[in-house]
Amino acid sequence: MISNKNIVITGASSGIGKAILEMLAVKENNNRIIAASRSIAKLSGFEENVILFPCDLSTQEGVDALFAKASELFEKIDIFICNAGAPYYERYDYEDWERIERIFRLNTFSHMYSYSKYLNHLNGREGQLVYTISAMGEMALPGYALYASTKFAMKGFQQAIRVESPKNLRITCVYPVATKTNFFEVGGAGHKVEQPFPVQTAEEVAKAAVRGIERGKKQVYPCPIYLPSRFLMSILPPVRNFYLRTQEKMLLRFIERKKNENQQTKNQ
Questions:
Q1: Could you state, in order of their start, the residue ranges of all structural domains in the chain?
Q2: What is the tens place of the pLDDT at every residue in 201-254?
């Protein structure tokens, strides 16, 4: 188990980030943790070894403030977990520059900038950077065009920095499949979203992630059927096409359901 470490976790107020926080915050492990998120104030019940830090990680100012706080409290950040992120579920058929920029700022720009900040913070000392990417960083699904784009960008970024980065920095990337969070209840602009198959709980992802961090693994795939499925789809394109068609039908059902629910609300 990871113990006696100074740890920063972003996106720690819900989902995978919260599950990782709960695992690492057990007092007997003697970790000191800064848990960061815009809505971090809603968390409670943690011991004094957990510092709740509210900040907007989609901005340079928010990331700078987080590193300043960590440098104030810790001699060194042993593990920095970049987990903050948010999806959209929608048909991408609109013109909205700011909406595109918003998701990239949180899911991509923030994590890229944190890499440079962390390198400078370490200044040659050993550390571990952890990225929660997504299985959708390897295979995009209908309804997630922008979300998958942010994750594909992170997949490419980590490939390059693995070659560039100094030997004192270890990089672990986690690729969860769809994870049971409140996004699927109200994530589609307030409308319920069907979960793509397969689905894991945040706790299952957290256990795999923490195990991978502890062992210094380069890649962590929490879902046991993901890699065999990816291989099967690569050698049997009809299987991949069938799966994508099922996801497209889910999107069409969502669009119809959203249209009907909006109309009902308008008529009330």
A1: 6-225
A2: 999 999 999 999 999 999 999 999 999 999 999 999 999 999 999 999 999 999
- Both structure tokens of 210: 């923490």
Token pair recorded at residue 31: 């970790």
Helix (H) or strand (E) holding 100: helix 97-104
Q: Which CATH number fits domain 6-225: 3.40.50.720, 3.40.50.880, 1.10.443.10, 3.30.230.10?
A: 3.40.50.720
Name the E strands within 199-242: 199-201, 219-220
The one-character DSSP state at 194 is P
C-alpha of 48 from chain center? 25
Give the helix, strand, coil percentages of the chain, each rounded to 5: 50, 15, 35
Rounded CA Rg of the chain: 19
pLDDT tens sequence across 132-190: 999 999 999 999 999 999 999 999 999 999 999 999 999 999 999 989 877 666 555 66
Closest CA to 90 of 100, 79, 77: 100
| CA distances for 23 relative to 47, 189, 203, angstroms | 13, 31, 9
Please choose, from the candidates 125, 30, 21, the residue with its C-alpha nearest in 3D space to the C-alpha of residue 76.
125
* pTM confidence score: 0.93
What is the rounded CA–CA span in Å between residue 233 and residue 210?
Answer: 28
Number of helices (H), then strands (E), in the chain: 9, 9
